[in-house]
């Protein structure tokens, strides 16, 4: 004679409950890690765009891409023509940067305005501000740089004076103060 046994035992129910719980915890762990990885990837892209734009802001000379932001150094000692000798890194020409609108400067900085927004500001006296700060952005990359602001091209005599090489002033005992001052500029980049 055959005896009918118990189909679902209490041990079986406990083991199924423990397996479902373990599976739920594993899936939750995977979801949290994938979300964290996606957030890190988004921030890394934001950081790459912001860091590149910050570097271009302080080191972009005039080129075929358009008007840069760096101060041009002119030779105003020689023939008097004022030819641009070189561009001065970390020196921002306020006339050049002021001539750019938001989209043009974004192009110079390499920022795709369809995907990112930016804000450039210097809170120092006589500073600049382009764009508006982030309002509802969750991830913001910002980078602060030490720069020199100057209005227009920098004369070679100004640089020589600041470095103490202006022999005309030294010979005549004149003391001319350096007109180049260090300021801070902040670039913020975020996704709208």
Characterise the protein shown here.
This protein is α/β, with parallel strands linked by helices and 192 residues long. It has one domain. The chain is built from 5 helices and 7 strands; from the N terminus they run H-E-E-H-H-E-E-E-E-H-H-E. The protein has helices spanning 10-59, 94-98, 102-109, 156-163, 167-171, and strands spanning 70-75, 83-93, 117-121, 129-130, 140-150, 154-155, 182-190. The protein has a 7-stranded mixed β-sheet with strand order 4-3-7-5-2-1-6. The model has no long low-confidence stretch (mean pLDDT 81).
Features:
192 residues, alpha/beta, 5 helices, 40% helix
Helix content: 25-40%
Strand order in space, largest sheet: 4-3-7-5-2-1-6
Tell me the overall shape.
rod-shaped
The low-confidence parts are none
Instruction: Compute the number of strand runs.
Output: 7
How much strand? 15-25%
Order of helices and strands: HEEHHEEEEHHE
Rounded Rg: 30 Å
Mean pLDDT value? 81
Question: How many structural domains can be distinguished in the coordinates?
Answer: 1
Structural class: alpha/beta
Oligomeric nature of the chains: single chain
State the end-to-end CA separation: 76 Å
Biggest sheet character: 7 strands, mixed
- Number of separate helices: 5
Summarize the topology.
Elements lengths: L9 H50 L10 E6 L7 E11 H5 L3 H8 L7 E5 L7 E2 L9 E11 L3 E2 H8 L3 H5 L10 E9 L2
Parallel strand pairs: 1-6, 2-5
Antiparallel strand pairs: 1-2, 3-4, 3-7, 5-7
């Amino acid at each position: 004679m055959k005896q009918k046994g118990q189909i679902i035992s209490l041990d079986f129910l406990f083991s199924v409950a423990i397996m479902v719980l373990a599976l739920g915890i594993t899936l939750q762990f995977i979801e949290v890690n994938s979300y964290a990885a996606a957030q890190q990837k988004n921030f890394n892209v934001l950081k790459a765009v912001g860091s590149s734009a910050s570097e271009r802001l302080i080191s972009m000379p005039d080129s075929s891409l358009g008007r840069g932001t760096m101060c041009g150094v002119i030779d105003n000692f020689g023939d008097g023509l004022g030819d641009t000798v070189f561009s001065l890194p970390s020196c921002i020409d306020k006339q050049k940067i002021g001539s750019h609108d938001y989209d043009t400067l974004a192009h110079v900085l390499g920022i795709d305005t369809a995907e990112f927004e930016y804000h450039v500001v210097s809170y120092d006296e006589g500073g600049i501000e382009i764009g508006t700060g982030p309002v509802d952005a969750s991830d913001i990359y910002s980078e602060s740089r030490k720069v020199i602001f100057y209005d227009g091209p920098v004369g070679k005599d100004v640089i020589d004076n600041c470095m103490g090489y202006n022999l005309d002033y030294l010979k005549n005992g004149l003391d001319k103060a350096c007109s180049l001052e260090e300021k801070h500029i902040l670039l913020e980049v975020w996704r709208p």
